[in-house]
Design brief:
Blueprint: E1 3-6, E2 21-27, E3 30-35, E4 43-47, E5 51-53, E6 63-72, E7 79-84, H1 87-97, E8 104-107, H2 132-150, E9 155-162, H3 167-177, E10 182-189, E11 206-215, E12 245-246, E13 266-269, E14 275-278, E15 297-300, H4 317-326, E16 329-331, E17 343-345, H5 348-356, E18 359-364, E19 370-374, E20 386-387, H6 394-405, H7 417-428, E21 435-438, H8 445-457, E22 462-467, H9 473-481, H10 489-492, H11 496-510, E23 522-523, E24 529-530, E25 538-546, H12 549-553, H13 558-568, E26 583-585, E27 589-592, H14 598-607, E28 613-617, H15 621-630, E29 635-639, H16 641-650
Parallel strand pairs: 7-22, 7-25, 8-9, 8-21, 10-20, 21-22, 27-28, 28-29
Antiparallel strand pairs: 1-2, 1-5, 2-3, 3-4, 6-25, 9-11, 10-11, 12-17, 13-14, 13-15, 16-17, 18-19, 23-24, 26-27
Helix pairs in contact: 1-2, 1-13, 1-16, 2-3, 7-8
Amino acid sequence: MSKVRILPPRESAVRGDQRLWQVDAVSGGIAEVSLLGATEPEVVTVSIHDLILVAEFRDRIYPGLRPDGTVERGGDKPFHTVISGENFHVLEQLTFTHEYAVDAIYIDPPYNTGAKDWKYNNDYVEGDDLYRHSKWLAFMERRLKLAKRLLNPDDSVLIVTIDEKEYLRLGLLLEQTFPEARIQAVSTQINPQGTSSGAAEFSRVNEFIFFVVLGGAELTKWSRSMIDNDKEASDVSNDQTVRWADFARFGANASRQKSPGAFFPIFVDIKSEIVHSIGEAIGWSTDPASVPVPQGTRAVWPPKRPDGSDGRWRTVAESCRELVEKGYLKVGPHNPRSDRHSFAYLQGGSVALIESGQIRVVGKDAKGAVVVEYGEGVKRATPKTIWTLPSHDASRWGANLLQQILPGRTFPFPKSLFAVEDALRFYVKEKPDAVIVDFFAGSGTTAHAVMRLNKQDNGRRQCISVTNNEVAAHEQTTLRKNGLRPGDPEWEQHGICDYITKPRIRAAITGCTPQGEPIKGEYKFTDEFAIANGFEENAAFFALTYESRWMVGNDRAFAAIAPMLWLRAGAVGERIDSLKGGWAVADSYGIIKDLDQATEFIHALNERNGIRIAYIVSDDEGRYQQMRKELPAVEPVRLYEDYLRNCESTGDL
C-alpha cells in the first residue's frame, strides 16, 4: 500500500491537502486514491504527477542515498558529508552507519518561537497552539533518542543551543533522555546590541548552550576563559606566569580535626628566611608551644581559623618535605605583627607540567624556591560558564560572514562560525579523527567550523551535516503563483540545502563564491588567513531516498545502499558504486556478492592496508558464517540482513 498526499494545483498559493490517501489502483497515468482513516469512504481520481509519496514516523522506512556531487581538495582525508532529507529519517539511517561511533553532536534546533523561518518551518507548531511546547518536546525527543544511539557512550558530547523560550523544558528533556550524563549549561552572548519584543522586556543579548557529556569525555582547557572585557580576544596563551597556591588550607575542611596529620610546624631560619626543617605532626593533646624549636629558627604553625580553632596545611609533613627538597614550597616575607610567614606551593597539575616540559624551571630564588614559567603558548585557562567573546557575535561573524561567502543569498540567524568552533574545540581538540554530526545543519556552520579545527592541528575530523531542502515560507507563495511546487527543479533550487548549505561548504573548501570569484576578507581570531585560501578538505553531497524492502532484500537497490556502506567504512577514498565483477575492494572496505569468488576477494583484502569492513551479500547463513571465519581482522557485515534488521528496529521509538 502506498500512502500519498495530493499536491495543490499549479499557480495555487495554498499549501495543498495535508490529508493522507491510499493508492488503490493506477491506470494510464491516473491513480484512484481513497482517504485514509475516513469515517465515510472518499475516493477520487488524480494524475500521478499530482501525488507525492509520504512516510509517517510510525512507518518502517528503508533509506538510501543518491549522490549529488563532490568537492575534493583534501587528498586522502575523510570526506565531510551533507545529506539532504528529513532529519529524523536520516538519523535512522545513521544508526546503521554510525551506531555508537560519533564523538560529538552539535545542533541548533528550531527555537519554537512560532515563526515560520526558513531553517525549519515551524508549521508543525503554530505560535498560538496551546500544545506548542509539548509538540516541540515530542519533536525533539524523537530525534534525541536516535542521537543517543549515535553517540559513543564511553566518550562523547552532545552540544545543544537554545534561547529562553524552551531552555527550561529542553534541560528537563535532556536529563530525562541522558540520565547517565553530566549536563552543564553555558550562557553565551551572541548579540551585543540586544533585541526585545517591546518596552516591557529586557533586551536579550544571549542564548544558552547545553553540554551533555557522556562517559569519560573530558573538557580540554584552552587559552581563553571565554569572558572578555571589550578586547578583540581574551588570550592568556602568552602569559607565562605560573600560579602558586596558598599552602594553608581555608574553608569548611580547613580544621585540624579534619586531617590531624596536616598540623605540624615549619621551621624557618630567622636570618635567611629559608625553610630550615619540617617538624612532625603532633597529637590532639599536645600543646604547640611545647614543641622544641631549633636554634635560630621560628616555628610557623597553620593559621588559626575565624572561630579561633586550629587550621591545617594542604599536605602532611612528609609531602611538605618533598616540596621543600624540590623547591616547590615558597616562603613569604616575615610579618612582624603576627610573627609569621605565609607559604605557597606548586600543586600537582603544575608539577606534572614541569615533568612534561610544558612548564620550565628557569632558576631558583634567594630562598630556594624554583622560578618557573610556562612555555610560549602553553598556558591554558579554565573556561567559564558565561561567554562574552566578540568573536561570537552572530551578526558580524554569522550573517555578515555568510554574505561574504555567498553574496546575495540570505539565511536567518546563522551562528557565528567562531562560536561553533570554540564550543566543539573543548571536546574534540584532543581527537584529531573525531566524527561530528549536526542534524539541524542549516547554513552549514558546523562543517565549516570542523574544517577550521582541522587546519589548526592538521586533523582529519569529519562532519556529517543533515538538513532539509525546505524553501522559505515567504518564497513558497511566490513560487506557487508562478506555477511551481515541491519537486520541480525550479522550486528545489531555492531550498536551504541546494541554495545555502552545499554552496557554503563548497565555497569554504575552494575559497571561491558560487560565481567563481575569490571570497573577500580574512578569517580572524585563533587562525587568521585569507578566506580565499580555502581548506584542504573533501566533501560529498547526497539526497535521502526511500527504498522498497523487497528491492533491497533482493539486491536490486545496491546503487542507493552503496553510499551508506562507504559512510560506515569511514567515508574515505574510493566508493564502490557497482559490483559488476561479483566483488570489489576500495580503500577502506570490500563487498562481495559472488561467494564462489571468496578466495580472490580475501586475497585482495589482505593486499590492502586500512581495510575496516567486509560486506558479504548472502541469504545463506551457513555460507556467511564460513566466509566470516576466513576473513582477515576486519569487521564483517552481512547484507542485507544487518541493514534491514536495523531499519526494523528504528521504525518506532
